[in-house]
Amino acid sequence: MAHVLVQTAAAELPRLIERALAGEEIVLTEGVTPVVQLVPVSKPPARRIPGSMKGRFDVGETFFEPLPEHELAAWERFPAGERDGTSTEH
Q: What angle do CA 72, 76, 80 make, to 5 degrees?
């Protein structure tokens, strides 16, 4: 990690930016106190297009069937049967 005085950084900014873009950690300091870190701006995530995956996979008919009680319990954090009051465990 490189520490550079703010006063020095003003004259070296283009070179410091190149170093930061290359992955080096650059910290600007006032005396011995770190005040700013130069880091690259991350790219925004790719834009999502609704329907872009249409036809690329098939979910099948069973996907739309109701889940078994034990599956529902796992998703809802209730033991099987406790959800509807039929559990025998207490």
A: 55
* Average pLDDT over every residue of 8-27: 93
Question: Which run of H or E residues covers position 16?
Answer: helix 6-21
83 close to 72: Cβ distance less than 8 angstroms: yes
Check whether 28 has a pLDDT greater than 70: yes
Indicate yes or no: pTM above 0.85.
no
State the average pLDDT over residues 22-51: 91
What are the domain boundaries of the chain?
2-38, 56-90
Q: How many CB atoms lie within 10 A of CB 4?
A: 19
Q: Which residues of 15-27 are buried (b: 16+ CB within 10 A; e: fewer)?
A: ebeebbeeeeebe
